[in-house]
Design brief:
With about 300 residues, this protein is an alpha+beta fold. About 60% of the residues lie in helices and about 15% in strands. It is rod-shaped and about 135 Å long.
């Protein structure tokens, strides 16, 4: 019977964990390839004054507490109840290998900190003192359980990186949106700048025309001293004065538009760099997840 890996362990990973080493590990020490062998070792387990035959399995890259929690979660799906005694007991376990008769599975957990692993000792019994007759079927189930628990440990890593990937995707979406928004703002600012430059050019041309008219009218009035010529000269000077005021205002708007263009141009590299950083992070995380999935598939 295939057992479903269950996710229970909360894990926190930093971006530095994504940098792999020559030993095929993340910087935090998580192995990205499966280098272990699943085995079931005959053992014994004490319960209620009785010594019962048991099977020792190893849950790598874990510890006794984590392995025990994973075991409880696995047994919860096929038993009536699981309690935390010493040993812990999964009661009313229904396993096809033992026909239709429920059995009880006893469990103790230990940690090997130096080797970074947890070990579970499992006894398959009919009651507190009587082991099941078919110890071969019990051993086979213990091996299936070892495979499922080791896959579950890897699934914890996969889920942690998947969660980080979701966050990175959100950050990338935001960064790409900022790139697009900045590009739109820059495009608008360039249009505003062109519009203001055209306005300045037009006013400058008009003012140059008024200046020419004034020069001609000044010469004419100097010769005629005619009030009508003075009136035309005065009107031309008023137009130039108004034009110069308009030019000052237009040049101020042009400078403001130029500042906006410079501002958005200055932001472009930063936005692009941020988007690229999130893209790189996304690709790194995806690569780690793909490696972990291959690792998980290799556990048999």
């Amino acid at each position: 019977m295939l057992l479903r890996p269950t996710i229970l362990i909360a894990a926190t990973f930093t971006l530095s964990a994504l940098r792999t080493t020559a030993q095929d590990k993340t910087k935090e020490g998580d192995l990205l390839t499966w280098t272990h062998t699943i085995s079931v070792v005959p053992d014994s387990l004490a319960n209620a004054g009785h010594t019962l035959p048991a099977f020792l399995i190893t849950v790598y890259e874990s510890d006794g507490g984590q392995a025990f929690d994973l075991w409880k979660a696995q047994m919860a799906s096929s038993s009536r109840e699981v309690n935390n005694g010493k040993p812990a007991k999964a009661i009313g376990v229904t396993l096809p290998a033992f026909n239709s008769s429920p059995v009880m599975v006893l469990c103790t957990a230990t940690t090997d900190k130096k080797a970074d692993l947890g070990r579970l000792s499992l006894a398959y019994v009919l009651n507190d003192s009587v082991p099941v007759m078919d110890q071969e079927a019990a051993s086979a189930h213990a091996r299936e359980l070892a495979v499922a628990l080791n896959k579950a440990v890897v699934q914890v890593r996969i889920d942690a990186y998947t969660k980080r990937l979701d966050k990175t995707n959100d950050k990338l979406d935001d960064a790409q949106e900022e790139v697009m928004d900045n590009a739109k703002d820059l495009e608008k600012a360039n249009k505003d700048l062109a519009k203001n430059r055209n306005a300045v050019s037009k006013i400058q041309a008009d003012n140059a025309k008024y200046s020419g008219e004034i020069a001609g009218l000044e010469k004419k009035f100097a010769l005629t001293n005619d009030p009508k010529d003075l009136k035309q000269l005065t009107k031309a000077r008023q137009k130039l004065a108004k034009g110069e005021a308009s030019l000052a205002k237009a040049m101020k708007s042009e400078a403001k538009a130029q500042d906006a263009v410079s501002r958005y141009q200055g932001r472009s590299p930063d936005h692009a760099r941020t988007a690229q950083e999130h893209t790189d992070s996304k690709e790194e995380i995806e690569a780690v997840i793909a490696q972990l999935k291959r690792k998980q598939d290799a556990i048999r």
